[in-house]
Write a structure and sequence with these properties.
By secondary structure, this protein is mainly alpha-helical. It has 41 helices and seven strands. α1 packs antiparallel against α2, α24 packs antiparallel against α25 and α33 crosses α35. The longest helix is centred in the first third of the chain and has 36 residues. Bound molecules: protoporphyrin IX containing FE. Protoporphyrin IX containing FE binds next to α33, α37 and β3.
C-alpha cells in the first residue's frame, strides 16, 4: 500500500484516506471499502486534475493499482481509471491503463470497444487504429454479443470513407454466429450489389460461375450479352451468400438457448445462481461437442469471466486443454491464471493440481515452489504439506519426504494440531513405505506427549496398531498394544466425551471381531463407562478419579481444532447437482458445506453397540480448509490476489441479512431466523429420546404432507389440519403432539409464519441439522380449518407390505424409486411403544442422516422379535435395531430392492434423490403464488 506520509490533501482528507487504507488492509475482501477509498482519492484536493499535487496523484494511482490487482475483472473501473489518466496526464497514460485492463480481462467486449473508441478519437494515424481494431477482433470478435465492437469498427471505416474496408469487415462478420447476425447480413447484401464481382468471390469460383452461366446460355444456342452474364453471376453469388446466411442463422439458433440464459455476462463478486452454472456447463458441453477449437477456447474464456471464482470451471478448462495435442503452454497458462489471480487461496486444490502438472512436465522445482507459495499463505494446509512430502518422496526418496514433515513440525508458524497430523503421516510413511513398524511405533510413542489432545493422532495410532498382522502367537501382544493405546488416550487426552466414545467404538469393534474368549468383559466395561448413565461414567466423573486427572477441559476454539477432520480436494469433490436451486456458493463457502455433508457423526448418538466409525480412515491426503489469511499486504506469487474473490462474495451475502424491510413482508432472512430458532432448540433436552427433536419434527412434516391425494387434490402440506381432531387422533399420528408442542413457542415468537409453513420448515431444518443434504424450501402454505381434515387411512400402515406401500405412495404421485428414497428417513429416530406400539431405532446413529438404513437392511440378518408387541424384526447380532414389516418389504420386493442396493452403495446418490423427493413431498397440494416461485436454501446452524 501507499506509504506516503501525506496523501496530498488537507489534513482531514489525509486522515480519511489513512483510515480507509487501514480498512482495506484489514479487510481486503470488502469490496465496499475499496470503493470508498477510490471515491475518496478521486475527491482529493477538490477533485483531481492535471494541476493536482504529485502526492495526490500518486495516492490515486496507488489505490487504483491495488484495487484492480485485487479485482482485475471489473472492466468499468479500468475504463474509469483510463479516463482519469487521460484528464491528468493525457492519452499516452490512458493508453497504458487500457493496455493493462485488456491484458487483465482479455475478452471484455466493452473494454476493448472503449479502448478502440478512445484510440479513434486520439490517434490520427489510421493504420495504428486499425491495428488495434484487429487486435480487439482477435480477442472478442467471436463473442455472441460482439455487435457494439463491430459497429464501432464499421463506424471508423465509414468515417474514413474506406468502403472497401467496410465491405471486407462485413464479409467476415456474416460468418459469425451472433446476436445481430441478420442486421449485418442485410447491410452486406445491399453493399454486395455495388461491389465489383472480383471482390465478392475468389477467382476460381467466379470462373466456375461464369462457365456455368455461359453453358446454360449455350444450351439454348445463344450467346448472352456481358451485362446479362454479370446479372446471372450475381444471382448465383447472391444464392451462395444466402447459404452462408442460413448456416450462420443455424449456428446462431443453436447457441441462442444458452445465450438467452446468461443473466450475468460480466464479473461480479456476488454469487451466481445455480441455474447460471448449469447453463454454462451445458453450453460448454455443446461447444465441445461441436469441436471447433477456437470457439471452445473462446467460450471457456467468456465463462471464466463470469465464473472466475468457481474453480470447477478452471479445473474443467485445464482438463479439457490437457486432452488436446501439444498444448502444455496453454494448460500452464490456465493454471497460472487460476492460481495467481482468481481462485481463492482457501481452495488450494487447483494450485496442487498445477504442481502435479509441472512435475509431470519435469519442472520439479516449480512444483516445489508452488507448494511453498501455498504454505506461505496457509501454513496449516495439511493437504499441501502432505502433497509436498509426497512430491519429495517421488522425486528424491523417503528421507526427503520425512524432512518436509520434520521442517513443518519444527516450524513456529504451524499450529500444534496440524503438527499432530503430520506426525501421523510421518509414522505412516515409515510403516507403509519403509516397512518399519518399530520406527513408526516409536514416532507415535515419542510424540504422544505433545499431541495427546489431537483426535486425529489417536485415530491414526489406533488404526496403525489395529492393522498390524497377527497370528495365534502374536495375538495376545497385539491385543495388549491396542488396549494400551486406548487406555493411554483416555488417560492423557482432553478430548470431549463424544470423541472418546467414537474412538471407544473402534476399540469395542475390535474386541468384538478379534477379541478372545474374555473380550466381552472388557467390552462391557468400556460400554458401561463410555455409554452408561452419568452416575457410573468415569468420563463425566473424570475429575473424580483416574481419567485425565487434573487436566482442565479444552476451551471451545481449541476443542474444535483438536477434533477437526481433514479432507483433500478430491474427497470434497462432488458432481454438481443439475437440479440445485438458488445462489451457488463460491468455493470458500462450498468447501465448508461439502465438509459438513461428508462429516461422520460427532453427535451424542444412541448406542450401546459399536457404530460404523472412522469411515474416513486410511485417507492420506487432507485439506484443513483454513480460511484465507487477511491483512497481509504482501502479494505472493501464486497466493496473492486470489485470496480475494470468494471472501468478497461471502461478505456480500452476509451483509444482505442486515437489510431491514420497511414494510413487513417476510424475507429469506426472516425465515432463516425461524430456522435458526428451531435448530438451536433441537438438542435442548438431552433426555428426550436420542438427544434431538429432529426425528419427530421430520415425522410431523411428513405426516402433514403424506395425506395428499393427487386425484382429488386434497390433503398435503397446505393446511396443517393435524392441529384438529379428528386428524390429530388418527392412529398414524400418535406421538406427533410432541412435535407440535415443541413448535408452539416458535410460532409465538414468529407469529407471521403459518403453521403449515412452520411444520415444513421444521422438517427441512431437522434434515439439514442432522447432517443430511440441503433441502430447498419455499413458503406459501396457508392454514385451513377443521373442515379440511383428511380421512383416516391415508398414511402407510407399518404392518403391511409392498402392495399397500405402492397404493399409498402412488396415490400421492410417487414412483418406486421415490418410495425407497423416502424410506431412507428411517435412518433417523425410533419407534415408541406408547406411540405406534413398535419399539427401537433402525440404525445406530438415529440423529445423523446416512444411508445406513439401506446398508443394515441388506447386510444384517433380521429375525422376528420375540415379544408381546406388534410383529417387528430385530437384528440377529445386537438385537438392538428394528425393522417394520413395511421396511422389510423394500428388500422383499425385487424392484424396491434394486434401489435399496443402489442407495446402500452410494450415499451421495441417496442424498441427492432424498433431497429431491423430500422437496416434492413437502410441496404436495400447495398452490404456490408466482412470488413464491424461488426456493431457498437455509444456512445450517450445525455446520
Ligand atoms: C414407508 C412407509 C412408512 C411407514 C410404514 C412408517 C412407519 C413409521 C412408524 C411406525 C414409526 C414409529 C413412530 C413412533 O412409534 O414414534 C415411524 C417413525 C418415523 N418415520 Fe416413518 N414410516 C414410513 C415412511 C416414512 C417417511 C416417508 C418418512 C419421512 C420422509 C418417515 C419418517 C419417520 C421418522 C423420522 C420417524 C421417527 C420419529 C421419531 O423418532 O419420533 N417415515 N415411521
Amino acid at each position: 500500500m501507499s506509504d506516503f506520509a501525506s496523501f496530498g490533501g488537507a489534513d482531514e482528507e489525509n486522515a480519511e484516506i489513512k483510515r480507509l487504507n487501514a480498512e482495506v488492509e484489514a479487510e481486503p475482501d470488502n469490496f465496499e471499502n475499496w470503493e470508498k477509498l477510490i471515491r475518496a482519492c478521486e475527491g482529493l484536493e477538490g477533485g483531481l486534475n492535471r494541476n493536482s499535487s504529485p502526492q495526490a496523484l500518486a495516492t490515486l494511482r496507488d489505490s487504483y493499482d491495488r484495487f484492480l490487482l485485487k479485482f482485475p475483472l471489473l472492466f468499468g473501473y479500468w475504463k474509469k481509471y483510463a479516463d482519469l489518466e487521460f484528464n491528468i496526464s493525457g492519452p499516452e497514460s490512458a493508453e497504458m491503463v487500457y493496455e493493462r485492463g485488456c491484458a487483465s480481462i482479455t475478452n471484455s467486449v466493452d473494454l476493448w470497444t472503449e479502448y478502440c473508441s478512445f484510440k479513434m478519437e486520439t490517434t490520427h494515424t489510421p493504420h495504428l487504429v486499425r491495428e488495434l481494431f484487429e487486435r480487439a477482433a482477435s480477442h472478442i470478435g467471436l463473442d455472441f454479443l460482439s455487435h457494439p465492437f463491430w459497429d464501432k469498427y464499421l463506424e471508423y471505416e465509414t468515417r474514413q470513407e474506406a468502403h472497401d474496408n467496410i465491405f471486407a469487415i462485413l464479409k467476415r462478420v456474416i460468418h459469425i454466429p451472433m446476436h445481430q447476425y441478420a442486421r449485418y447480413f442485410e447491410r452486406f447484401r445491399q453493399l454486395a450489389h455495388t461491389r465489383p464481382l472480383e471482390e465478392l468471390v475468389s477467382p476460381d469460383i467466379l470462373a466456375q460461375y461464369r462457365a456455368e452461366v455461359e453453358a446454360e446460355a449455350a444450351q439454348f444456342g445463344m450467346a448472352k450479352p456481358e451485362l446479362e452474364i454479370e446479372r446471372d453471376i450475381r444471382a448465383k453469388i447472391d444464392a451462395s451468400f444466402y447459404t452462408i446466411f442460413q448456416r450462420t442463422q443455424t449456428e446462431t439458433n443453436k447457441r441462442w438457448t444458452y445465450e438467452a440464459e446468461i443473466k450475468r455476462p460480466y464479473f461480479h463478486v456476488t454469487e451466481l445462481e445455480h441455474h447460471q452454472l448449469v447453463n454454462w456447463r451445458k453450453y460448454l458441453d455443446f461447444e465441445e461437442a461441436e469441436g471447433n477449437y477456437q470457439r471452445i477456447v473462446f467460450l471457456y474464456e467468456r465463462c471464466l469471466v463470469t465464473c472466475a471464482l468457481y474453480d470447477e470451471f478452471w479445473f474443467r478448462y485445464a482438463r479439457w486443454m490437457e486432452a488436446q495435442d501439444n498444448k502444455d503452454e496453454e494448460v500452464r497458462n490456465i493454471y497460472l491464471r487460476a492460481a495467481t489471480l482468481f481462485v481463492p487461496i482457501s481452495r488450494p486444490g487447483i494450485r496442487l493440481q498445477f504442481a502435479y502438472f509441472e512435475e509431470m512436465c519435469g519442472r520439479v522445482d516449480v512444483a516445489r515452489d508452488i507448494h511453498a507459495a501455498v504454505l506461505m499463505k496457509l501454513p496449516d494446509c495439511v493437504e499441501a504439506i502432505v502433497s509436498w512430502a509426497n512430491l519429495q518422496r517421488r522425486q528424491s526418496g523417503l528421507d526427503a519426504a520425512i524432512e518436509v514433515y520434520k521442517a513443518q513440525i519444527d516450524s513456529p508458524v504451524v499450529d500444534i494440531y496440524t503438527k499432530a497430523v503430520l506426525v501421523t503421516e510421518w509414522a505412516f510413511l515409515l510403516w507403509k513405505v519403509k516397512g518399519s513398524v518399530d520406527e513408526a511405533r516409536t514416532v507415535f510413542e515419542k510424540n504422544v506427549q505433545w499431541y495427546a489432545n489431537s483426535r486425529h493422532f489417536w485415530q491414526k495410532w489406533l488404526e496403525f496398531e489395529l492393522e498390524q498382522p497377527t497370528n495365534a502367537e502374536l495375538e495376545a501382544q497385539h491385543a495388549e498394544r491396542v488396549k494400551g493405546v486406548f487406555a493411554e488416550m483416555r488417560a492423557k487426552s482432553r478430548l470431549s466425551p463424544t470423541i472418546k466414545q467414537e474412538l471407544g467404538q473402534v476399540y469395542m469393534n475390535y474386541l468384538q471381531q478379534r477379541g478372545g474368549k474374555q473380550a466381552m468383559k472388557e467390552f462391557l466395561l468400556i460400554d458401561r463407562e463410555l455409554f452408561g448413565p452419568q452416575s457410573i461414567s468415569p468420563i463425566t466423573k473424570a475429575k473424580l478419579s483416574k481419567e485425565s486427572v487434573g487436566l482442565p477441559e479444552l476451551d471451545e476454539a481449541t476443542r474444535l481444532k483438536a477434533e477437526r477432520r481433514f479432507y483433500n480436494y478430491y474427497e470434497l469433490h462432488m458432481d454438481p447437482d443439475p437440479n440445485a436451486q438458488g445462489p451457488a456458493m463460491m468455493m470458500a463457502t462450498a468447501a465448508r458445506t461439502f465438509t459438513r455433508a461428508l462429516r461422520t457423526t460427532a453427535r451424542p448418538a444412541f448406542t450401546a453397540a459399536p457404530r460404523v466409525a472412522f469411515r474416513q480412515s486410511g485417507r492420506r491426503f487432507y485439506s484443513s480448509e483454513p480460511a484465507a489469511k487477511q491483512g497481509s499486504s504482501t502479494w505472493l506469487w501464486l497466493a496473492g490476489a486470489a485470496a480475494v474473490g470468494g471472501g468478497a462474495g461471502w461478505y456480500y451475502v452476509n451483509n444482505k441479512s442486515s437489510a431491514t424491510p420497511k414494510v413487513f413482508t417476510p424475507t429469506f432472512e426472516d425465515y432463516q431466523a425461524v430456522y435458526n430458532e428451531i435448530a438451536n432448540r433441537l438438542d435442548e433436552n438431552s433426555d428426550y429420546d436420542d438427544g434431538s427433536y429432529g426425528p419427530v419434527l421430520l415425522r410431523l412434516a411428513w405426516h402433514a404432507s403424506g395425506t395428499y391425494d393427487k386425484e382429488t387434490g386434497t390433503g398435503g402440506s397446505n393446511g396443517a389440519t393435524m392441529r384438529f381432531a379428528p386428524e390429530s387422533d388418527h392412529g398414524a399420528n400418535a406421538g406427533l403432539k410432541t412435535a407440535r408442542d415443541f413448535l408452539e413457542p416458535v410460532k409465538e415468537k414468529f407469529p407471521w409464519i403459518t403453521y403449515s409453513d412452520l411444520w415444513i420448515l421444521a422438517g427441512v431444518c431437522a434434515i439439514q441439522e442432522m447432517l443430511g443434504p440441503q433441502i430447498p424450501y419455499r413458503p406459501g402454505r396457508q392454514d385451513k380449518d377443521v373442515a379440511a381434515c383428511t380421512p383416516d387411512g391415508r398414511l402407510p400402515d407399518a404392518a403391511q407390505a409392498q402392495d399397500h406401500l405402492r397404493a399409498i405412495f402412488y396415490r400421492m404421485g410417487f414412483n418406486d424409486q421415490e418410495i425407497v428414497a423416502l424410506a431412507g428417513a428411517h435412518a433417523l429416530g425410533r419407534c415408541h411403544t406408547d406411540r405406534s406400539g413398535y419399539s427401537g431405532p433402525w440404525t445406530f446413529s438415529p440423529t445423523v442422516l446416512t444411508n445406513d438404513y439401506y446398508k443394515l437392511l441388506l447386510d444384517e440378518k433380521w429375525q422376528w422379535k420375540k415379544w408381546n408387541g406388534p410383529k417387528q424384526y430385530e437384528d440377529k447380532k445386537t438385537k438392538s435395531l428394528m425393522m417394520l414389516p413395511a421396511d422389510m418389504a423394500l428388500v422383499q420386493d425385487k424392484k424396491f430392492k434394486e434401489w435399496v442396493q443402489k442407495y446402500a452403495a452410494d450415499n451421495d446418490l441417496f442424498f441427492r434423490d432424498f433431497a429431491n423427493v423430500i422437496v416434492k413431498l413437502f410441496e404436495l397440494g400447495v398452490p404456490f403464488e408466482p412470488e413464491n416461485k424461488e426456493r431457498w436454501v437455509f444456512k445450517p446452524v450445525n455446520a
